[in-house]
Amino acid sequence: MVDNYISKNIVFYYTDKPVTDNLKLNISNFKKCNNNFNVTLITNSDFILDLAKIDFPHIVFLFNKITIPACKSDIFRLLYLYYCGGIYVDCNTIAMKSFDEFYEKNKHFDFIISFNYETNDFSTRILFSKPLTSILYNVLQVVQRNLLNLYEKEIMSNDIIPYNILVLTGTFPFYEVLGRNNVNKINGITYFDDNSDIVKHYGCKLISHIDFNLHWSKRQKKEKLFNNTL
């Protein structure tokens, strides 16, 4: 059973400390552009992990072992939207104008995923969802399977097992559940244009990473995903 409308709660999640001045400014700007929405920055995931213990026990077990914040962010947004619903926005996304018009036209949908019409790809930078949707439940089951499979390989080897965060926890689980190019044919699901004039997406340097070598795409090539001492 899902709510009648997607809630007007816009959520950002940030795991690095301290919160940067640029991110604080970005949140403030989002609040000004979206004064009809509740805009929140979350920096602690414990409450969501508590909710997920029964449904996704392996995700809960592995979450704090994950060393790369981008992977944690992928997981958090899925768990948060599954249990709480609302609108998830990446920290490196800046508001250009209000979500109001888009929201009023599409708030009845169960789930809305970003889509880049230029590259014909899904994006998870902005997601809208009612709570307890089957789409997110199924995606989280895929994520749980992917993480557990990699964890079992890593604990058996001293070497780095090749992995890709997009495949593990990013857009690929959505492809597995939804397929490609057929979202508009699935009842209750639609797109948010990833190149919409409502927002602008910036690289990670703007908000979080001063050193690009800290970016997840670099780190995943030279370190294990899980800290097995935790």
- Count of helical regions: 10
Number of domains: 1
Give the C-level CATH assignment.
Alpha Beta
The number of distinct β-strands equals 8
Q: What is the correct CATH architecture? A: Alpha-Beta Complex
| CATH topology annotation | Spore Coat Polysaccharide Biosynthesis Protein SpsA, Chain A
What is the secondary structure topology, with strand pairs?
Blueprint: E1 9-13, H1 21-33, E2 38-42, H2 46-52, H3 57-63, H4 69-83, E3 86-89, E4 93-95, H5 100-106, E5 111-116, E6 121-129, H6 134-154, H7 165-168, H8 172-178, E7 189-193, E8 199-201, H9 204-207, H10 216-219
Parallel strand pairs: 1-2, 1-3, 5-7
Antiparallel strand pairs: 3-6, 4-8, 5-6
Helix pairs in contact: 2-4, 4-6, 6-8
Write a structural description.
It is a single chain. The protein is α/β, with parallel strands linked by helices and 230 residues long. The chain has one domain (9-219): Spore Coat Polysaccharide Biosynthesis Protein SpsA, Chain A (Alpha-Beta Complex), CATH 3.90.550. It has ten helices and eight strands. The protein has helices at 21-33, 46-52, 57-63, 69-83, 100-106, 134-154, 165-168, 172-178, 204-207, 216-219; strands at residues 9-13, 38-42, 86-89, 93-95, 111-116, 121-129, 189-193, 199-201. The protein has a six-stranded mixed sheet, sandwiched between helices. The chain has a two-stranded antiparallel ribbon with strand order 4-8. α4 (69-83) runs antiparallel to α6. The longest helix is centred in the middle third of the chain and has 21 residues, at 134-154. It is globular, with a radius of gyration of 17 Å. The termini are far apart. The mean pLDDT is 91.
